[in-house]
Amino acid sequence: MSRRPFPLGYVRDDLADFTGYSSARTSAPAGAVAPAAAASGEQGVPVEQGAPVDLAWLNANEAATPNRADAGASVRRYPDPQPAALRGRLAGLWGVATDELLVTRGSDEGIDLLVRACCAPGGATRGDASGPAAGAARGGVVVAPPTFGMYAVTARLHGAAVHAVPQLVEPAEGPGGGERWRVDVDAVLRTARQQQADLVLLPSPGNPTGQGVPVEDLVRLAEGLRRDEAPALLVVDEAYADFTDAPSAATLLATHENVVVLRTLSKAHGLAGARIGAVLARAELVALLGRVQAPYPLAVPAVQLALAATEPAALEDTADRVRRTLAERDRVTTALRDLAGRPGSGIEAVLVAEANFVTLRCTDPGSVLDALEEQGVVARALATHPGLADGVRVTLGTPEQDDRVLRALGAHPPAHRPPTGRPTRTTPEETP
């Protein structure tokens, strides 16, 4: 069977010749850099000549002069849709080529772009037009609850089906015990095949389970989904990847065309309010997603923050922040596991933690939340998560905040330890 060129076998048929919206920035004269690029340290320079030119940019119906609130005159112009400096910086940080990365408004926009590009509303037809499966019905997304709720929300808003394959839970091996959840790889592949799913969406480490998907399982999934008659993308959401030693799924991009990775600056880098994320994928898919993306997705102040946050000194701070979080994770989980199962503790089990939070199974989640609130701690109830309705998720904070959590739950706070553990990458790599 002949296959259409990548990525056409994975996206909606009607997007094969979709060019997207041609904005004032993207339709500018060839080689000219828009003035908004100055926010990234670039100049209005035609590439062919290599010398600054005083261009009068009158193609976007912007205000002729800045607003008085815009002291630096940095937001009068529409922003660069994909700032070259930031794109290159993030590509180096996450180990991919620049054309394999699309900057997004956090991971949420990446999820939305993938669902809109790959899932036909209502499960309309999409298949290999040259093979016997042409026109085979496609079936939306596969998720593995308990999982991040935006996968299902995004799919349903788009009119795509959501197929849930529950994770498996088992006692954790090794010192400390606890509870471990894992993706049922065979069941996910079976469901994706039966439903002819467009996407399989998995967080790694997971939210709210806190555990990663082993790379060998990701390889099995990617290979099982790369079927000729109805291929599907494997989307690995690595929002919490900075808190684990596991290799990134981005290492699979070169060998598995159907692997997509989502990254963000919201967690370890402390920029949740800036809404900066990225889709990592084969260059052809990144280009198509760029045509699906809104014309001006990134605000200039957010881009400036992201560039400052990925300078070498800031990355050293991020590495230190991660080390401190890992030290707190060890300290807090040890104390809570000593408490789990004791009569009157209210805690039945502590899930294995590979992210920046700890998830508890509770005999009475409401009482646990009340006890935390009495100490001025706001935690997250997991009542809507299948399989973890008795769960409470607590983000790791400062040592002082975490001591309040432990005291509220009746645990004796262990002594604070000097931070140890794996540092994150502190300097961007050169990117082709």
How would you describe what is shown here?
InterPro entries: Aminotransferase_I/II_large, PyrdxlP-dep_Trfase, PyrdxlP-dep_Trfase_major, PyrdxlP-dep_Trfase_small. By secondary structure, the protein is an alpha/beta fold. The chain has two domains: 79-127 and 137-310, Aspartate Aminotransferase, domain 2, CATH 3.40.640.10; 314-409, Aspartate Aminotransferase, domain 1 (Alpha-Beta Complex), CATH 3.90.1150.10. 28% of the residues lie in helices and 13% in strands. The strands form three sheets. Strands 1-9-8-7-6-2-3 form a seven-stranded mixed β-sheet, with helices on both faces. The protein has a four-stranded antiparallel β-sheet with strand order 10-11-13-12, covered by helices on one side. A two-stranded antiparallel sheet has the order 4-5. The two termini are 34 Å apart.
Name its key features.
28% helix, seven-stranded mixed β-sheet, 13% strand, 10 helices, Aspartate Aminotransferase, domain 1, globular, disordered C terminus, Aspartate Aminotransferase, domain 2, four-stranded antiparallel β-sheet, 432 residues, alpha/beta
